[in-house]
Design goal:
InterPro entries: DapB_C (IPR022663), DapB_N (IPR000846), DHDPR_bac (IPR023940), NAD(P)-bd_dom_sf (IPR036291). It holds the Pfam family DapB_N. It is found in: Cytoplasm. One of its GO terms (cellular component) is cytosol. Its main location: cytoplasm. By secondary structure, this protein is α/β, with parallel strands linked by helices. It has 2 domains: 129 residues, Rossmann fold, CATH 3.40.50; 102 residues, Dihydrodipicolinate Reductase, domain 2, CATH 3.30.360. The chain contains 7 helices and 11 strands. A 6-stranded parallel β-sheet has the order 2-1-3-4-5-11, with helices on both faces. The protein has a 5-stranded mixed β-sheet with strand order 7-8-6-9-10. The longest helix has 17 residues. The chain is elongated and about 60 Å long. The chain binds 1,4-dihydronicotinamide adenine dinucleotide (NAI) and the ligand O=C(O)C1=N[C@H](C(=O)O)C[C@H](O)C1. The site of 1,4-dihydronicotinamide adenine dinucleotide has 26 residues, from α1 and α2.
Amino acid sequence: MNVLIVGYGKMGQTIEKILIERGHNVVGIVDRNTDTKIEDFDGDKVDIAIEFTQPSSAFNNISSCLKQGIKIVSGTTGWLDRRDEIEKLCADKNGAFFYASNFSLGVNLFFQLNKQLAELMKPFNDYGVSMEEIHHTEKLDEPSGTAITLAEGIIEKYDNINDWYLEGEERKNEAVGIKALREPHVPGTHTIRYTSELDEIEIKHTAHTRTSFALGAVVAAEWAKDRQGILSMDDMLKI
Ligand SMILES: NC(=O)C1=CN([C@@H]2O[C@H](COP(=O)(O)OP(=O)(O)OC[C@H]3O[C@@H](n4cnc5c(N)ncnc54)[C@H](O)[C@@H]3O)[C@@H](O)[C@H]2O)C=CC1
Ligand SMILES: O=C(O)C1=N[C@H](C(=O)O)C[C@H](O)C1
């Protein structure tokens, strides 16, 4: 397949390697500092774009691809307050938009485990739920997109939890507290804890490398290139 890479940082470069290993053709690379722009390409020559940039850039990049008739897989976090606008644009343009806060298979299984554990724990009021995420020091957003998806999974199951808050910012009642830690070189670690006065239950996902995210994004592009509409990991993995 012919792929346009949008964002050539840690993820974009890992994705390029995986695309080449899997026999795909990289038709272009767009980054902040390249002369190439999304507007130089159109849907006739590009099967799909893969976008990993930064919170302040994702909305414009995704809009530009959809306007150019280019299907798009995006994993950029921290911009989802404008997701509805993108979904409307995708429908208006008969495009394809595949978003995941985390493309790794392991994390998507962990999302399911998180919901199952929340379902099990919700009758037991002695346990309070909390979350911790650890990422590398270059990460621009907090909490991570993955932590927000995990919090949404808990909110979906509990009647008396309806929000999340970042620890260190204003505490909210009936909400999951998320602690965001930044340490050198950590690809991404997420822990959910149910704590009572007597004991603690903990589930944890540790990414050893970014390859799992990049491989997931390439597999998502392979799957999405012949589809239309709003696409997700749950659709693709049938979980
Ligand atoms: N959904 C997932 O599975 C994953 C999501 N991410 C997210 O992906 C994003 C990128 O992560 P990294 O590659 O680690 O960051 P990075 O900082 O290494 O790379 C970002 C790249 O985007 C470029 N960029 C910024 N604005 C741009 C624009 N307007 N047009 C084109 N390029 C632009 C930067 O110059 C940089 O090269 C972050 O939001 C991160 O949270 C990261 C890993 C996995
Ligand atoms: O910025 C990162 O690196 C990551 N971002 C995503 C997130 O915010 O959840 C996914 C992964 O954890 C790595």
